[in-house]
Structures are given as C-alpha cells and as structure tokens.
Request: fold
Amino acid sequence: MKVAVTVWENTVSTVCDFSSRLLVFNVMGDEVKNRSFMPFETRILPERVNQLEALGVEVLLCGAISRPLERMIRASGVKVIPCLRGSIEEVIGAYLDGSLSDARFILPGFGPGASRVRGRKRWRRGGASADCPTR
Amino acid sequence: MEKDIILDSIADGVFTIDDNWRITSFNRAAEQITGVLREDAVGQHCKDVLKADVCEKGCILRKTIQSGKSIVNRTVHIVDAAGSRLPISISTALLKDEQGRIIGAVETFRDISVEEKLRKAIAERYSFEDIISKNHRMHQLFDILPDVAGSASTVLLEGESGTGKELFARAIHHLSPRKKQPFIAVNCGALPDTLLESELFGYKAGAFTDAKKDKPGRFRLAERGTLFLDEIGDISPALQVRLLRVLQEKTYEPLGSVETVPSDVRIIAATNRRLQELVKEGKFREDLYYRIHVIRMELPPLRDRMEDIPLLADHFIHHFNVLQKKVIAGLSGEALACLVSYDYPGNVRELQNVIEHAFILCKSGLIEPHHLPENLCLYRGMESSGRNETMNMKDLEAVFITNMLRRHQWNRIKTAKALGIHKSTLFRKIKALNIKIPA
Reply:
C-alpha cells in the first residue's frame, strides 16, 4: 500500500493545503519501503489531488486540511487521515501499529476532549473531517 | 486573571508566546477565529494552533523576534478547526521584561473574510484557488492548465453560460508569466459593433464627432497582459477581419489613426456557442477560428458534473455566511436531493443564485426544500416522508427520472425512449414515486 505524509522538516506539516513536501512510501506488512521525498508545492488544490493520484497514493497522513481539499482527495479514492502532528518517524510508527488516535498525535482543537467554540461547529454532518483520528 | 479579562475584551484575536514558541495566553476572539479553545491552545506550539500558510515558510513572529521590529497588518491564510480557509490580518510585536530582555512575542489578528470577499468581488480577482471540483473532466482541464498558462498561445474556452469561463481565463492569466500585467475583459456580445471596435482598438481625437481626445483601447490597456474576449462568436464579420489582423501581425491601428501600433497581448477568447458550427454556417471566419483555436478547452456544464453540487453548495453557503453574517449549517438531505435533481441550465451561476435565494428564506440551521426556489423541488417524496437520513434506492430512482424528464422538456414519450423503458412503465413510476410534472 502506498502512503504519503505531508512533511515539514522532520514533522508532519501543520496544514495539508500549505505544505510543500511529501514523503511517499510503501507499506508491506509491518515494513516501510521505498521512501522518497518529493515536492508538493502547487497551491492549486486540484493539482494537489492530481499529484497524489499520479503517485498512486492510497492513504494520506496529514495535519489540518480544508474541507474542499479533503473532499476532492477523498473523491479521487485516497483515504485521508487528517489532524495529525508529531515527528514523521513517530507518526509512521503509530500508523503501522494503529495508535494514531493517541492524543499526542492530534492537533490542538481536534481531539475527542476538544470542546466546541461557541458559534462554530466543529463537525459537519457527513462533513469532511469525519475521518479525523478522533473517531 | 486580570490580564485575561482585558484580553477577552479585545475584538481582535490575541495570543502571546514564550521564547520556545509555546502559547502563554489566548483570548476569546482568538478562540472564535481559530476554532480552538484557550485550554487546548495554551502550552501548544503556536503553529499547531494558528495553522497559517506562513508558519512553516516565513513565520512572522520569528521575523519579529530576529529583527526586533513589529510587523503590521500582514494578510495570511489559516485553516480553522471547522476546515474553512480564512484570510486574516496579522500584526506582531516583541514582549520584553523590565530589563529589556526579549521574553516572547505577541500576535494580534482579525478575520478579514468579509473584506477579502468584497475585495475579490469588486476587483474580480478570483484565482485558481477559487475553482473547486472533483469531476474527472474538470481535473483533466486542471492538469493541462499550468502548461496552457505558461505558453503564449491563444486559448479558446467553450462552455455554456455560467460554467466559469471568465474564472478560468483569470486563472490562466494569474498562472502565466503575464500575471503582473493587466487582465482586461471585454464582453463582445454586450456592445454594438461600432462601439466594440472603438473599445477594442481605441481612437484618436477627431476620429468621429464626439472624439474630443485620444482614448486608449482595450488592446492598449492589456498591453503585455491578457485580453479576455467573451462571447467572441457574436462579433461581426468586419470586426473579425480586424481581429484576425491583430492576431496575425500583432499590430493594429486605433480609429482615426494612420500609425500602426504594435501589440503584445495574449488573447483568451470564450464563447457559449460552438464556434466550429458557426464556421460551417458561414457566420464565423474559418481563418480567425484557427487563429483562436490554438488551445481549446471545453468546460462541462454543471449537469455533467453533478458530483460537484454538494461541494459547490458548501462553498456558496460559506461564502454567503461570511457576507451576510449568518450561521447556516448546510443543506438537509432533502434539500440536497432537490439540488441534485435539477439540471441547471444556468450552470454554477444558477446554483449560486439558488443558494442566495435560500439564504433569504432560511434564518439559521439547515437549508430545507421549502427554502429553495419552487421549480427546483419537483420530487417531493422525501420531503413529505419527513426523513432526514441519506437517500435510498427509491429516492435515487426518483431523482434520476426527474432529471431525465427535465432534460427532455417533460416529454414522457421521449424520456421513456431515452431510458429504454416502455412509456407505460414510466407513467407507473412517475405515479409511484410521486414525481410532480409541471403543467
């Protein structure tokens, strides 16, 4: 399975929409193979989707993401696991062992304990962020 | 505590950081703008809370700390906790202790979504980031767009009214090397022939009775930039000849002038008619057609990309929420079913008008079918059942048949033929599914 992470330095980039690098790798069993970093610089959202599609990415691990971008990526058949933070190695490890819902990997304001700010709805019915690792 | 009360009384978002970039205070307005609560924000790295486009590439607070200088009113974009992209205006300043040592920094920010939307609407500066679609055909267009923008070739955009031809033209311009030069749009169909000629090429003083002084034409105004000629299929044969000459020789003469003016303008033409057919009918010059038709892009009508309707509706709801200061949560399942059962002869512009109509009637909560224009909700099955969950097979069938009927001007015989079923089967389904046929 081909997985991509949006990266900044050695951490998950805070916002997928603004990130400029991708780490792409294959997951074979418990192993990570064929790691490669590549630019992810276009600010044009459909081009970002096309780049992921062209790379054959099946799962995207990322930080915060805007609703339109998330919907477009999902519509292209890529599973999005958003709202993540932390070092790349730890996040990949947590993805492999299924512990991404650990609070330390979730951006502030997104965790299960995150309360709502009055006047702003965090979750939308059938909305884009339904797959946040808080599920 | 006293400090918090003071900060909470400020209308702008305010947070402070220590020398490790950790948030030490976070006021109520900051909560409202970012969607992150104070207790979730304090102690966190500021970039994880603010989520701005500059955090990783050119942190403004870092610049302030390094230079010792405040930054005032820089516009940046953030993604809030609800997944909305917001433009905000940021200012920064240093925090120092009594000895004058730097102990951190303060950032104040305000949501400028309304100003940004108004500015865009006035300046018509919508960019590629404003085009949203998950349709395969649209994505094919997006794929080639950077290459199209990078070339100097003339582009022909074909598509029905309201499909976003001007938005595409602006996007091509903003992605092109000419982006810092002007983008000038002319609607060729809106002006009579003689006026259009003087508008395009300008005139010299004395060229005609009221020409008291020189007036530059759109070609001149678009020099080194892009000229968007909308409804090009509507121009007269005489003007077609003049346009052909500009495209071939890159020169033109303003009305009443004997001097030839060189022109360095990229042309993007658009039409809602099939230019090739106009050529066959002898209404459009073949040589001009081939001059324009270097790169042709056909924008699909909305009815061919119905999967975009939830995405576009969501986009317009956000747009009107910002402009009208409302908190409409979205569309109910029934309202969405109504939207997808319509075939939008006016395309995306019509969908925008439909959502604007709903905003007048819907005060808060979800948009329901009765908030939509009457002609939109012809299939009332789900509305009467009062259910709120997603559509079932019966609903989908009803929506599909309603769509097909509409596409065939409600002619049941033609619709049955298109569906490959007997007309009596169609009549039975219309009755069983409670589909309303307009009189």
Q: What stands out?
A: Chain A touches chain B through 47 residues (CB under 8 Å). The two ends of chain A are 22 Å apart (CA to CA). Confidence is low (pLDDT under 50) at residues 115-131 of chain A. The longest strand of chain A covers residues 31-39.
